[in-house]
């Protein structure tokens, strides 16, 4: 959402918005080193599958941190701006949420940063991404970027171990299996309702090889 969208009456972003995660891969031909620059706004996530050992589970390394309303730094900013954060619902497992007032009138946003959602911009919900830099090292096999709907019922270790079963043969197949598994978990937990489910799976070795040959 750019500033010009605020002037377009056909776009209503007062109570709607999105999260986003992006990765820029930079390969140094001279040194052979690859660096991933990640930017995250909200609770989408980028993670790396690493250290594959036969008979053992793979490890995950998150390149981004989910920006939830009750994360200490995020909550401090929201409260300082006059917003209110409700704690997670223990009874039914709902997330912490941001409200414009103590009566929890609107909007009940389940993230501390978003692109859009202009109603809560005055109470500390910002679109600014957190940017990190990570040097790819031996044992880092693939990158998974996915929206919050994927990670709702699948944690990072489970996600990378699912992707690891298919990505050597086909990154597309690995991505499809991750999306299908996430959708099945939503059906199991929430019936007909589900959040957005979007994912990208990338073999890091292929990136380094393509950049070295470019």
Which structural class matches the secondary elements?
alpha+beta
Low-confidence segments, ≥5 residues, pLDDT <50?
Answer: 1-5
Terminal-residue CA separation? 33 Å
Q: Specify the helix fraction band.
A: 10-25%
Overall pLDDT confidence? 92
Shape: globular
* Widest sheet, order of strands: 5-4-11-12
Give the SSE string.
EEEEEHEEEEEEHHHEH
Which value, in Å, is the CA radius of gyration? Answer: 19 Å
The helix count comes to 5
Q: Bin the strand percentage.
A: 25-35%
The biggest beta sheet reads:
4 strands, antiparallel
Number of strands: 12
Task: Output the keywords.
disordered N terminus, four-stranded antiparallel sheet, three-stranded antiparallel sheet, 214 residues, 5 helices
Write up this protein.
With 214 residues, this protein is an alpha+beta fold. The protein is 24% helix and 28% strand. The chain contains 5 helices and 12 strands. The protein has helices at 72-80, 148-151, 156-164, 171-190, 204-213, and strands at 17-18, 20-28, 33-41, 45-50, 59-62, 84-86, 97-99, 107-109, 115-116, 130-135, 140-146, 199-203. The strands form 4 sheets. Strands 5-4-11-12 form a 4-stranded antiparallel sheet. Strands 2-3-10 form a 3-stranded antiparallel sheet. It has a 3-stranded antiparallel sheet with strand order 6-7-8, with helices on one face. A hairpin with an 8-residue loop joins β4 and β5. The model is unreliable at 1-5 (pLDDT under 50).
Furnish the topology, listing elements before pairings.
Layout: E1 17-18, E2 20-28, E3 33-41, E4 45-50, E5 59-62, H1 72-80, E6 84-86, E7 97-99, E8 107-109, E9 115-116, E10 130-135, E11 140-146, H2 148-151, H3 156-164, H4 171-190, E12 199-203, H5 204-213
Antiparallel strand pairs: 1-9, 2-3, 3-10, 4-5, 4-11, 6-7, 7-8, 11-12
Helix pairs in contact: 3-4
């Amino acid at each position: 959402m750019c500033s010009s969208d605020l002037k377009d009456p056909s776009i209503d972003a007062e109570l709607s918005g999105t999260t986003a995660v992006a990765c820029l891969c930079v390969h140094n031909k001279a040194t052979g080193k690859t660096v991933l620059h990640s930017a995250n706004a909200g609770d989408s996530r980028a993670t790396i599958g690493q250290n594959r050992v036969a008979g053992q589970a793979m490890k995950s390394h998150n390149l981004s941190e989910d920006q939830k309303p009750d994360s200490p730094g995020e909550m401090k900013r929201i409260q300082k701006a006059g917003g209110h954060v409700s704690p997670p619902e223990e009874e039914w497992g709902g997330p912490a949420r941001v409200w414009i007032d103590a009566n929890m009138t609107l909007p009940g946003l389940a993230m501390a940063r978003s692109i859009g959602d202009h109603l809560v911009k005055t109470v500390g919900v910002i679109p600014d991404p957190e940017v990190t830099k990570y040097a790819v090292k031996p044992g880092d096999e693939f990158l998974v970027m996915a929206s919050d709907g994927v990670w709702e019922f699948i944690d990072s270790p489970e996600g990378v171990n699912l992707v690891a079963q298919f990505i050597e043969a086909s990154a597309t197949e690995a991505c499809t299996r991750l999306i299908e598994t996430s959708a099945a978990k939503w059906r199991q937990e929430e019936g007909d309702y589900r959040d957005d489910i979007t994912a990208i799976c990338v073999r890091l070795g292929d990136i380094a090889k393509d950049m070295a040959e470019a």
